[in-house]
Amino acid sequence: MLKNFHIMLAYLTVLGFVVRGVWSLLDSPMRQEKWVKIAPHVIDTLLLTLGVLLVIDLGLAPFSGWLSAKLLGLVAYIGFGVLAMRAQSRSLKIFGFSAALLCVGYIFAVAFTRSAWPLVAA
Ligand code: HEM
């Protein structure tokens, strides 16, 4: 139940990020809508909270290898995401957007394989 909700939010954060990324590149006025600014914070806070609850529920070591890799990936996803949304130049925005998508792809791969090196594990 917790895990299903966590997974649903994981897909939702990526979907929301892609939509906002496209709006950012198109300079769409939709970006200024209040709900568009608030929703990602609500989704990401819930995603993180459920992640922490899952760690407790499953009795995992808080900083086991794959979990730390996931958290590092998360920090990078957030950092590149901010760049994608706030950069002044279009090329920097595209760079931030692509790098953030790579990071979140890595997070998914780590989540599914439970390995910090998903390509080796696969
Ligand atoms: C963008 C951020 C995140 C994404 C995209 C994500 C994605 C996922 C996905 C897809 C799964 C399901 C894997 C499976 O089917 O076995 C999962 C499981 C899990 N995630 Fe996350 N997650 C994120 C953040 C976090 C954070 C921040 C934490 C911890 C603080 C966390 C802890 C967990 C745990 C404990 C599981 C269950 C692993 C297991 O069943 O052994 N996640 N995550």
Core attributes:
binds protoporphyrin IX containing FE; globular; 122 residues; mainly alpha; 0% strand
Q: Can you describe this structure in just a few lines?
A:
This protein is an all-alpha fold and 122 residues long. The protein has helices at 2-25, 34-57, 65-86, 90-113, 118-121.
Count of all domains: 1
The unique ligands bound to this protein are: protoporphyrin IX containing FE
Q: Which descriptor suits the 3D outline? A: globular
Beta percentage is under 5%
The helicity comes to: over 70%
Number of strands: 0
Helix-strand string: HHHHH
Describe this structure in words.
By secondary structure, the chain is an all-alpha fold. It has one domain. 80% of the residues lie in helices and 0% in strands. The protein is built from five helices and no strands. The chain has helices at 2-25, 34-57, 65-86, 90-113, 118-121. The longest helix has 24 residues, at 2-25. The chain starts with a helix and ends with a helix. The mean pLDDT is 94. It binds protoporphyrin IX containing FE (HEM). Protoporphyrin IX containing FE is lined by residues 3, 6-7, 10, 13, 47-48, 51-52, 54-55, 58, 60, 70-71, 74, 77, 104, 107-108, 111-112, 114.
